[in-house]
Q: What sequence folds into this?
């Protein structure tokens, strides 16, 4: 299981600071940051700690089992960013 960021993301990167394993990208200091519309969780690196959930102020982050029906496509979108 991994956590998933959806298009509610406003790229404030509060989750990046909360994540203990640096699996949320692109960070603000990465060259690709300006070109993306949202941030993504690397499903291979996420340890499912949940620390990012309270950090997110835009209701963009969900545990895999809690991703809303109309946001399911972002499960694949998060994985695809790291493919
Ligand atoms: Fe990072 Fe934990 Fe959130 Fe996974 S659940 S993205 S490891 S803060």
A:
């Amino acid at each position: 299981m991994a956590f998933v960021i959806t298009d509610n993301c406003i790229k404030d990167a509060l989750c990046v600071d909360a994540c203990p394993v640096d699996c949320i990208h692109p960070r603000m200091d990465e060259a690709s940051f300006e070109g993306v519309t949202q941030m993504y969780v690397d499903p291979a690196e996420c340890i499912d700690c949940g620390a990012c959930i309270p950090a997110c102020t835009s209701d963009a982050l969900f545990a895999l089992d809690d991703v809303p029906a109309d946001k399911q496509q972002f499960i694949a979108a998060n994985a695809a960013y790291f493919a």
